[in-house]
Specification:
single chain, 688 residues, alpha+beta, MutS, DNA mismatch repair protein, Chain A, domain 3, Rossmann fold, five-stranded antiparallel beta sheet, 17% strand
């Protein structure tokens, strides 16, 4: 796999999280070597291990993993003929106890994790070695039971030390007046008295040391000199016997060298497997179904680094289409969607569980290449566009049916017309090669290419036109808009700037000749026919709705509180079938609509890309009050276009528009108030 892609898709962060969950240096090294595999059997085995580890952790049991402190260094020295120290041998004894504990634990959990429980059977707790080490070493020292000769020597040492202690106590009392302090000290591993320099002749013995000031001499009294020489001889004998015991224990450990190395490898593997299980528990990972075909079917997938609060993603590639073009506003989640798809593939092929719903299916890919980020580099003299081209070149070198390619912001970094042409040409070639492609763009030409090309599909990141906030939800089947103007208004850009920008955009659209369309004449004809069909269906639906409203009013049945114009219709010739937003009126009717908006007119609201009903005509500033989804919002008349005149919507001039703008309760109250006085009855209108 491409290292730059692993970094761009943040696979290195997932790896580091796995490393952090390990408890031993050996397990950490295994986690640091983790990388995706292309072998289906290997991936399935890894995923099964991770799943069983997650189940074990979920059972609430404490897994007896060993930190294996000092064991790695010990194993490196095995076979070198070295004699180990008491501390090293005791660490070995403690670790063998952990091995025995792990074997017992796994036997008891075979019903939960049969596969990794079987791994424990390959370990050997080396019972003879463990028992011998436990008998000979305790608290980092050889015990008297380590050998009979060592016990014999130590008995003489204890007896000689006792005699010296009694002699020194007698000397303390005998030479008290000559001592600097009444304590027994040690110098050169021999017992001495602290004597004042000027009284040195009063204490017969050998001077072994003096204080830094020179005022105190440390003297070994003649009374204990012979006993201390005897003690030194016994201590030398103890050292010789100690080395014999340690040598015998080291030779015994050497005889288990192969078994000890196998145990270490198994314990490191357990540590690594459990770390993967901990990662799965932390991000809600589940086992994914592996397919022999290069497909991606993600249900409710979440980015593992964003946590449970991130919006779930449903994505498909390789089943009904090979290419998915994702559009929508900035900050809407397009890049996160690409990263989620790519990262889930890498995680699954590394044997990790992915945070997605049951039923998700992933194929196995030979190459995953991502072009995410601008890729600028001062050191390599790379601009945004040149970095994109470098990645595209690499994509074409590896592109085949088992390649996943992720492209963020297609056609960016250069002249839009050239970038668009280059992007479409690239998509065509990749489609021929059968590679799976996920891409994001803001350009309508690329959206149109995806809409008309078999094997390609549009998708959009949902955007709430009322709150002007992204919903971070991928909707398959439709292209989305960038909503640059709406987002700019949300962040407080001056209204004068926004009005001027909308005017410039409107003028630009009106001046584009028909030949400038990226589609052929036949395709333009089809699109126009579809648009007319959609408009006719929308008009018929609206007129039918208002006739039903009038009928309900005559029969005094329950009335709707506000107008709800049908804004969606079935899409034409798409798979899968989705609803698409209603389109603004065609320019062919422009001449009929040059008139002042009147109450009841249906108008198209460009900032919201939906229809509404005029509640109050334009004031002296040109602001029109429009009812949208039960709310009354103010828009400048330049941002509105007549959709359907009220004469076409409502039967007769006497049609009661209160049916559209007032609730049933208000109309009923107004009717009662016209007939008689009702105590406490009032009508409170919401502020406009």
């Amino acid at each position: 796999m491409n290292e730059a892609t692993l970094r761009k898709l943040e696979y290195d962060k997932i790896k580091q999280m796995t490393v952090d969950w390990t408890v031993s240096d050996a397990g950490k090294k295994l986690a640091e070597k983790m990388k995706p595999s292309m072998s289906k059997s290997q991936i399935q085995a890894w995923q099964n291990e991770t799943f069983e580890a997650s189940e074990l952790l979920g059972s609430g049991a404490s897994i007896p993993l060993s930190a294996m402190e000092g064991i790695e260094a010990f194993l490196v020295l095995l076979g070198k003929g070295r004699s180990y120290t008491e501390h090293e041998l005791e660490s070995l004894s403690v670790w063998l106890g952990s091995v025995a504990q792990m074997k017992r634990y796994m036997r008891g959990k075979a019903h939960i994790a049969p596969t990794i429980a079987a791994y424990a059977e390959s370990m050997d707790d080396c019972k003879p070695l463990r028992e011998e080490l436990g008998r000979c070493i305790r608290y980092g020292m050889l015990t008297d039971e380590a050998s009979s000769d060592l016990a014999y020597v130590r008995r003489h040492i204890y007896a000689t030390e006792d005699k010296i202690s009694k002699k020194m106590e007698h000397s303390l009392s005998k030479y008290r007046s000559s001592l600097q302090e009444s304590i027994v000290s040690k110098r050169r591993d021999r017992f001495v008295l602290a004597v004042k320099r000027e009284l040195r002749k009063q204490v017969p013995g050998t001077v072994l040391d003096e204080s830094s000031s020179g005022q105190t001499l440390f003297i070994e009294p003649n009374d204990v000199s012979d006993l201390q020489g005897e003690l030194a001889e016994w201590r030398s004998a103890e050292d010789r016997e100690r080395m014999i015991v340690l040598s015998n224990l080291s030779q015994l450990a050497e005889s288990y060298a192969h078994v000890l190395e196998t145990n270490a490898q198994a314990m490191a593997s357990f540590d690594f497997i459990m770390a993967r299980g901990k990662l799965a528990r932390s991000c809600g990972g589940r086992r994914v179904t592996l397919s022999d075909e290069p497909v991606i079917w993600l249900k409710g997938a979440r980015h593992p680094l964003l946590g449970a609060d991130s919006m779930p993603l449903d994505a498909e590639l390789g089943i009904r289409w090979k290419q998915l073009i994702i559009t929508g506003p900035n900050t809407g989640g397009k890049t996160v969607s690409l990263k989620t798809i790519g990262l889930h593939v890498l995680m699954a092929q590394s044997g990790l569980l992915i945070p997605a719903e049951e039923g998700s299916v992933l194929g196995i890919f030979r190459h995953v290449v991502a072009d995410v980020g601008d890729g600028q580099s001062l050191e390599q003299s790379l601009s945004t566009f040149s970095s994109h081209i470098a990645v595209l070149k690499e994509m074409f070198e590896v592109a085949d049916t088992r390649t996943l390619l992720l492209l963020d912001e297609m056609a960016a970094g250069t002249d839009p017309s050239e970038g668009i042409a280059l992007s479409i040409a690239m998509l065509e070639i990749l489609l021929e090669r059968g590679s799976l492609v996920g891409a994001t763009t803001h350009f309508n030409e690329i959206k149109s290419f995806a809409a008309r090309t078999p094997g390609c599909q549009n998708g959009r990141m949902a955007f709430d036109p009322v709150t002007l906030k992204p919903l971070y939800r991928l909707e398959i089947g439709e292209a989305g808009d960038s909503h640059a103007f709406a987002i700019a208004r949300r962040f407080g850009l001056p209204e004068a700037v926004m009005l001027r920008a909308e005017s410039l955009l409107s003028n630009k659209k009106e001046t584009i000749p028909a030949s400038a369309s990226p589609l052929s004449g036949k395709e333009n004809s089809l699109d126009s026919q579809q648009s007319r069909n959609e408009q006719e269906q929308s008009l018929d639906s609206q007129q039918s709705w208002h006739k039903q409203e009038q009928s309900r009013n005559r029969n005094e049945r329950e009335l709707r509180s506000d107008t709800k114009l049908p804004l969606t219709i079935p899409s034409l010739g798409r798979s899968p079938v989705h609803s698409v937003a209603a389109k603004p009126p065609l320019n062919s009717n422009e001449g009929k609509r040059k008139r002042v908006f009147e109450k009841g007119d249906s108008v198209w609201i460009f900032p919201l890309r939906r229809a509404g009903v005029v509640y109050r005509p334009a004031d002296e500033k040109g602001n029109v009050l429009v009812q949208v989804k039960g709310e009354k919002l103010s828009f400048n008349h330049k941002r509105l276009k007549l959709y359907i005149a009220k004469e076409e919507l409502y039967p007769g001039e006497s049609y009661d528009l209160d049916i559209v703008f007032e609730s049933k309760e208000h109309r009923r109250a107004r009717h009662d108030m016209s007939r008689k006085h009702v105590e406490g009855l009032e009508i409170i209108l919401p502020p406009e």
